[in-house]
Amino acid sequence: MNTIFWQTITDFHDAPGTCGVYQYWQNDELLYVGKAINLKARLSSHAQNAKMDMKEAAIVSGDTIRYTLCDTEFKALMLEAELIRTLKPPHNRAWKDDKTYLYIVIDLKDPFPRPYYGRAHDLKENPRFVDNDPKFKVFGPFPNSFIAEEVLRAIRRLIPFCMAKKVGKHACFYSRIGLCNPCPANIIKLPEFDIQTRQYRTQIRQVVKILEGEISPVIKDLTIKMKSYSEAQDFENALLIRKNIERFERFTKTHNFSDRQFSYNDSSKKLESLQQLFIDYCNLNITFHRVECYDASNSAMHDSVVSMTVMTDGLLDNGQYRRFKIKNPRAVSDFDRLDEAITRRLKNTTWDKPDLIVIDGGIPQLRRLQRIFDKQSEPPLYIGLAKHPDRLILPGDSRKASKWIIIKLATDYPALLLLEQLRDEAHRFANAYRKILEKKRTAL
Fold first, then answer.
1. Which residues of 184-218 are buried (b: 16+ CB within 10 A; e: fewer)?
2. pLDDT at 169
3. In 3D, which of 145, 75, 74 has the Cα closest to residue 103?
4. Which of 349, 336, 262 has its CA nearest to residue 78?
5. Cβ atoms 271, 288 nearer than 8 A
6. Does the CA dihedral 313-315-318-322 come out positive or negative?
7. 334 near 359, Cβ under 8 Å?
């Protein structure tokens, strides 16, 4: 496993409200490993539950808490599973309840490696697992079969592979819908057997990389493949790969649930990329400690809301999120809703001042909000993130639309990935609040 930097605290109140993996320790003994999208809230719940539950009391009886930050919950899930499997904490049920915890297993010695699910008691009886055979890949444990299946399902939509227990004489159903391609049953019959076999094994190695946390290199390889299809004017396959990449990236960024040089926390790299972006295009050298993003949502002109999501030092900071219920009945457009929310936010001096404000929108939204920022004695830096395709709108001479700086970045550009993650979270948070209000209104 790559080097992971752990922070040590003795009081859960000192934990941040960001995503990560945590450990409870008693002297030199590891008691428990867990993950959380909000470390402070999760540790607080352990402390509260310990008053009523003996197991929770045993977990929090340690003298120290260690935590490491992860930039997505998908990575936190992978790290938690690997730590439980390798360190075997006594208060994690993975090694005590074989019926609950599930593993994903891939045997690379198989001519056609196929991921399958395995229970702990089966793995402990397998000599290759006991001897840590490098060709016998085991990922997990996962808390339940639903999460393990969901992870494989998301990967399979990006990279097709076979999951049949035995390679049959006929192609399986999943080969017809593109989830098993090339299908081992077809490969055996083809004259280009060796070529198709190598292609299939290459895809399985990509699956292994993703399960180990190496997501970026796989996405990069698929992007190159997409471009080659496009240059050959095979636009149908190029579009299919692009849709699969977008779907998988959305899953890893927003879904709730390793070359071993990979990092579980790329926030520093992404922040440096964002800082360099403003140096190159705007000649501004800014350290981005707090970044806020705003998105509006409404339902048929009812339940108008605006969300504010926050990144602190490049990581989503759930404890800093805020939501605005739009009060002005004349706010009939997203422009009006954003206008009201930004005005109310800038009047609030109790919240930390943002180093950057990101608006889900383009030049029209920024021009509408410009008058609000111009009234500030020290206005924060603000930019837009427009969609289809995603592109950044940076301040130039903002009095003229032609002077806004429009930047189209590569889909794997670190700064863009950071801002997209924040924007997607703002969209999710706004819709969640709108649905709450809609449910209350329709229940009356």
1. bbbbeeeeeeeebbeebeebbebbbbbbbbbbeeb
2. 79
3. 145
4. 262
5. yes
6. positive
7. no
Contact 249, 219 (CB under 8 A): yes
Q: How far apart are CA 346 and CA 354, in angstroms?
A: 10
Strand order in the sheet with 102-107: 116-119, 102-107, 136-142
- For 190, the token pair is 């083809």
What's the rounded Cα separation, in Å, for the pair 386 and 408?
A: 10
- Which of these, 134, 100, 125, 105, lies nearest to 117 by C-alpha position? 105
Q: In this structure, what token pair is assigned to residue 363?
A: 């030049």
Q: Report residue 384 as tokens.
A: 């837009």
pTM above 0.90, yes or no: no
Bridge partners for 357 per DSSP: 292, 382
Residues sharing a CB contact under 8 Å with residue 403, sequence separation 6 or more, in sequence order:
396, 397
Backbone region of residue 143 per phi and psi (left: phi > 0; alpha: psi in -120 to 50; beta: other values) = alpha
- Which residues are 66's β-sheet partners? 8, 23
Locate tokens 């196929």: which residue? Answer: 114
Nearest to 162 by CA among 150, 149, 178: 178
Q: Which of 308, 288, 268 is nearest to 381 (CA)?
A: 288
Burial of residue 77, with CB atoms counted within 10 A of its CB: 0-12 exposed, 13-18 middle, 19 or more buried: buried
Query: What is the spatial distance between Cα 285 and Cα 52, in angstroms, rounded to a whole number?
Result: 51
Measure CA of the first residue to CA of the last residue in the chain; give whole Å: 54
Q: Which residue carries 């190496």 as its tokens? A: 214
> Tokens 């903002």 identify what position?
398
* Residue 90 exposure: Cα atoms within 13 Å on the Cβ side: 12
Give the Cβ contact number of residue 1 at 10 Å: 12
The SS3 call for residue 158 is helix
In the chain, what are the domains?
7-92 (3.40.1440.10), 102-254 (no CATH), 268-443 (3.30.420.340)
The per-residue pLDDT for range 47-73, each reduced to its tens digit, is 888 888 887 888 898 889 999 998 888
| Token couple for 230 | 């496009």
Cα Rg of the chain, angstroms:
24
* Number of alpha carbons in the 13 Å side-chain half-sphere of residue 444: 4
pLDDT in tens, 337-389: 999 999 999 999 899 999 999 999 999 999 999 989 988 888 899 999 998 88
Of the candidates 158, 32, 150, the one whose C-alpha atom is nearest the C-alpha of residue 91 is 32
